[in-house]
Design goal:
13 helices; globular; alpha/beta; 544 residues; NDH-2; EC 1.6.5.9; FAD; NDH2-like_C; single chain; 26 strands; membrane; eight-stranded mixed beta sheet
C-alpha cells in the first residue's frame, strides 16, 4: 500500500449568488452557491480504494455547497486520461461527491446526455418517484431535423434549441434534482458512481473541475460522434452538422466567403474556390443541407450578392447512392430535382482533406471554400472507453429491455446503444425516432419499477419489467429544396408502402416537424421564422 504525503491548501472560495462561478476555479453549478471553506485539509492513504477510474491527483480543496441541500467531499484534480493502477498503488482520494441517497429519500436516476433519447426520458419520468440528475456537455436539446435550415437563415438558432430545464422542470426546481454542465469520463458500476468533469468556454478556468455522482439507476444516452473513417484532415478542416454551434460556424463561414469574394483584387479562380460549397455524404442531412443551400443561392444570393452570383455553386459527393434508405422512385426524384436546382452530384470517395481542397480516391482535386461533412455517426470516445459489453458496431450492448445485462441498474438507449448479438435483434439505425421511442418506453419501465419500490440500487432484481422494447419504423422524410420534399412511409426497405414526392410531401414534412417541436414557444418561433423568410427572405447578417 502506497503512502501519500499530506496535501495542504489555504485557498479560499468567496461566496456568490446562485449560478455564479466560484472565484478560484470558476466552477458553475446550477442552483448552487459556493461557500467559504476552512484552510488546510489533510488526507492519508488507505487501502482498498479503486483508482482505476480515478487517475493521479494534484490538488485538494474542500468545498461545501449547501444552497440546495448538497454536500461535497474534498476535491482532487486529475489528469485527463484514465489509467489502470495496480492494487499496491491504490490511493485514497475523494472527488467532490453528490453522495448516495439515504433511507427515506427518493431514489436517484442519473441521465447522461441531453439528446432525443435522454430528453424524451426526462420529460416523462415521474419525479414523485425519483430525483433526477442530468449530466451533459450542453444544456439544451437540438431539434436536429430542422438544424440544416438554421445554416442559411431560414430559421434562427433558438428555434431548434430547447433548454433541458424546460423539458424537465424538476431539474430547476426540486431540491435534490440537478443539471450539471459536464462530460462523463468514467463509470464505476460496482460502486454505482459516475465520474465527470465540467465543460465551459476556454479561458473560464485553467483546468476542468472534476466530481462524481452516486446513482441508484443510470441511463446512458450520451449520443454518438460524426464518422470520419480516419481520413486525414477531416477533423481540422471540415464542418459537421450535429449541434447548434456547428450550424453557427457554417453560417458564419458561408457569409464570410460571400463578402470576401467581392473584395477588389480577388482572382477569378479564388472567387470560384471561396464560393464552392462541398457536402460529403448523401444521407438525409447532406441532401437537406444541399437543398437549403440551393434555395439560399437561388433566392437570396442572386438578389443580395449580384456581383458574385454566377460563381457560387454546390457539390454533393456520395460514395454510393443518395438517400439509400428511401424508395428507388424517391431517390430518382431527388437526384433529378437537386440537379435541376443547381446541385452537382458526384460519386466518389474522399481520400484526404486539405485546407482548400479535397482529394478523391481517383486522384482528382476538388477545391472548396466551405466543406460540410455528413457521413453518419459512430460510437464516441466515451462509449469506447466504457468497460461494458458492446453491440456490433461498438455501441453499448443492451438487451430487449434496454438494460446493460452485465451490470446492475444500468440502462442505455439512443445512438450510443445497440442490441447485443444474443438478443437476435439488429442494431437499430441512429435516428431521432428510434431514440425518442426508446426514451418513451424506458419511462414506462422506470415508473413501473418505482411504483413497486424498486427504484433504489440493487432492489429491482425480482421486479418484472413488462413487455420488451419493439421498434416499428414510422417512415422517413427529407426536404430537397424549392418547396419539394420526399415522404417514404414504408416500415422497411423490403416492404411496400406509401411514397410521395413534391409540394404535398413538402407540406406534410413541414406540418409533421412543426408538431414534433417540443414546446409551444419553439413552435411559435419556427412558424414565425418560416413566415418572415417567405415574405422578407433569409437573414444574411454576419454577427461575430
Amino acid at each position: 500500500m502506497a503512502l501519500v504525503r499530506a496535501a495542504r491548501s489555504s485557498l479560499r472560495r468567496s461566496g456568490g449568488a446562485t449560478g455564479n462561478y466560484a472565484s478560484e476555479r470558476n466552477i458553475f453549478y446550477e442552483g448552487i452557491s459556493p461557500l467559504r471553506h476552512p484552510s488546510p485539509v489533510f488526507e492519508n492513504a488507505a487501502a482498498g480504494f479503486n483508482s482505476s477510474y480515478i487517475p493521479s491527483m494534484r490538488m485538494i480543496n474542500q468545498l461545501c455547497l449547501g444552497n440546495r441541500g448538497m454536500k461535497f467531499t474534498p476535491q482532487y484534480h486529475a489528469q485527463a486520461q484514465m489509467v489502470e493502477v495496480s492494487d499496491s498503488e491504490h490511493e485514497s482520494f475523494k472527488y467532490p461527491t453528490l453522495e448516495a441517497t439515504k433511507h427515506g429519500e427518493k431514489p436517484r436516476v442519473v441521465v447522461l446526455g441531453s439528446g432525443w433519447a435522454a430528453c424524451r426520458f426526462l420529460k416523462g419520468i415521474d419525479t414523485k418517484l425519483y430525483d433526477v440528475v442530468c449530466i451533459a456537455p450542453r444544456n439544451h436539446m437540438v431539434f436536429t431535423p430542422l438544424l440544416a435550415s438554421t445554416c442559411v437563415g431560414t430559421l434562427e438558432f433558438r428555434s431548434v434549441a430547447e433548454p433541458v430545464s424546460q423539458i424537465q422542470k424538476a431539474l430547476a426546481k426540486d431540491p435534490n434534482s440537478y443539471f450539471f454542465l459536464a462530460s462523463c469520463t468514467g463509470v464505476d458500476a460496482d460502486k454505482h458512481e459516475v465520474y465527470c468533469e465540467t465543460v465551459g468556454d476556454r479561458g473560464v478556468s485553467d483546468e476542468p473541475y472534476r466530481f462524481k455522482v452516486a446513482y441508484d439507476k443510470l441511463v446512458i444516452a450520451s449520443g454518438a460522434e460524426p464518422l470520419t473513417f480516419g481520413i486525414k484532415g477531416v477533423q481540422e478542416h471540415a464542418f459537421f452538422l450535429r449541434e447548434v454551434q456547428h450550424a453557427q460556424e457554417i453560417r458564419k463561414k458561408l457569409l464570410m466567403n460571400l463578402m470576401l469574394s467581392e473584395t477588389p483584387g480577388i482572382s477569378e479562380e479564388e472567387k470560384e474556390r471561396l464560393l464552392h460549397c462541398v457536402v460529403i455524404g448523401g444521407g438525409p442531412t447532406g441532401v437537406e443541407f444541399s437543398g437549403e443551400l440551393s434555395d439560399f443561392i437561388m433566392r437570396d444570393v442572386r438578389q443580395r450578392y449580384a456581383h458574385v452570383k454566377n460563381y457560387i455553386h454546390v457539390t454533393l459527393i456520395e460514395a454510393n447512392e443518395i438517400l439509400s434508405s428511401f424508395d428507388v422512385g424517391l431517390r430518382e426524384y431527388a437526384t433529378k430535382h437537386l440537379t435541376k436546382v443547381g446541385v452537382r452530384l458526384v460519386r466518389g470517395v474522399v481520400k484526404e482533406v486539405h485546407a482548400d481542397k479535397i482529394v478523391l480516391s481517383d486522384g482528382s482535386d476538388v477545391p472548396y471554400g466551405l466543406l460540410v461533412w455528413s457521413t453518419g455517426v459512430g460510437p464516441s470516445e466515451f462509449v469506447k472507453s466504457l468497460n461494458l459489453p458492446k453491440s456490433p458496431g461498438g455501441r453499448v450492448g443492451i438487451d430487449e429491455w434496454l438494460r446493460v445485462p452485465s451490470v446492475e441498474d444500468v440502462f442505455a438507449l439512443g445512438d450510443c446503444a445497440g442490441f447485443l448479438e444474443q438478443t437476435g435483434k439488429p442494431v437499430l439505425p441512429a435516428l431521432a425516432q428510434v431514440a425518442e421511442r426508446q426514451g418513451k418506453y424506458l419511462v414506462k419501465v422506470f415508473n413501473n419499477i418505482g411504483k413497486q419500490n424498486g427504484g433504489k440500487a440493487l432492489s429491482a432484481k425480482d421486479i418484472s419489467l413488462g413487455d420488451p422494447f419493439v421498434y416499428k419504423h414510422l417512415g422517413s422524410m427529407a426536404t430537397v429544396g424549392r418547396y419539394k420534399a420526399l415522404v417514404d412511409l414504408r416500415q422497411s426497405k423490403s416492404e411496400k408502402g406509401v411514397s410521395l414526392a413534391g409540394f404535398v410531401s413538402w407540406f406534410i414534412w413541414r406540418s409533421a416537424y412543426l408538431t414534433r417541436v417540443i414546446s409551444w414557444r419553439n413552435r411559435f418561433y419556427v412558424a414565425m421564422n418560416w413566415g418572415t423568410t417567405l415574405v422578407f427572405g433569409r437573414d444574411n447578417t454576419k454577427i461575430g
